[in-house]
Design goal:
10 strands; binds 2-phosphoglycolic acid; three-stranded antiparallel beta sheet; Rossmann fold
Length: 260
């Protein structure tokens, strides 16, 4: 696992944007795995800016989002479809026909989940998967004890996740209880993963992910099994790590090593 520690959120965001931009520039038809949540908003803003200022093009890219709430139609204001439109898709040249999110309003969410896996496979798999991390160590909506071998399916959200996401809904009761999410094994099948975590509230989960035991109790720790996983942190999110000297030594100020 590559651990890059940047001075602040802005630097961490720009570092993640560099990796996305490099991927899309090297392979314009790249398949991107996208994430939602507050952490990703400045990252998408940075990509929109690069599209406007530097001509970064998504015209040929394909995208698959990690998850969607069950019960919310794409046009629901709190759906992840809406989030992606507002944060990224409406502001860049991506072909909407090549953007994918699970259908939260599917008549049979498990059938929709299986079809989503098939679509990812038909697209040739995911080249670069973006990830956030929950305070409880979730990736996607793979909550603690999620099978490390799981594929896209229905998950019940924990109380802590619903409370964290309540801010986007009118009340806790209205915050969805269920989601369709890529599984841990779906995420691990991507060719590269980039997880971004910023802020002190993530420090404990980050420490468990990077230096804790591999365990379904912290689904993000499964990234220890991924051959190309990069974790981009700001100082606050890195606070709980013990081996910081080593990470700084290998990647001073979060920069590539001479062998990258
Ligand atoms: P956040 O969510 O970026 O809103 O903190 C991350 C996550 O829950 O995966």
């Amino acid at each position: 696992m590559k651990v890059l520690i940047l001075p602040d959120e802005k630097a961490a965001t720009q570092r993640a944007a560099d990796i996305v931009a490099r991927t899309v520039t090297a392979n314009p038809a790249a398949v991107l795995g996208l994430a939602t949540g507050g952490t990703m908003l400045p990252l998408y803003a940075a990509l929109v800016q690069r599209h406007r200022d530097d001509g970064l093009s998504f015209a040929q890219t394909t995208s698959f989002n990690l998850d969607e709430y069950i019960g919310l139609a794409p046009d629901h204001p709190c759906s992840y479809h809406t989030y992606m439109n507002d944060a990224l898709f409406s502001h860049v040249d991506i072909d909407r026909a090549r953007t994918h999110l699970p259908r939260g309003d599917a008549a049979d969410p498990q059938v929709a989940s299986d079809e989503y896996e098939d679509l990812i496979e038909a697209a040739g798999g995911i080249d670069l998967q973006l990830l956030g991390i929950g305070q409880n160590g979730h990736i996607g909506f793979n909550e603690p004890t999620a099978s490390l071998g799981s594929r896209t399916r229905i998950k019940t959200l924990t109380t802590s996740t619903r409370r964290a996401n309540q801010q986007y809904f009118a009340s806790y009761e209205e915050t969805p209880r269920y989601a369709i999410t890529m599984g841990v094994a779906t995420i691990l099948a991507s060719r590269k993963c980039v997880l971004v975590a910023t802020g002190a509230a993530k420090a404990e989960a980050v420490a468990r992910m990077v230096e804790g035991p591999l365990s379904a109790a912290c689904p993000a720790s499964a990234l220890q099994l991924h051959a190309k996983a990069t974790v981009i942190l700001d100082q606050a999110a890195a606070e709980g790590l013990k081996l910081t000297d080593y990470y700084e030594n290998v990647h001073p100020q979060g920069q590539d090593s001479v062998f990258d």
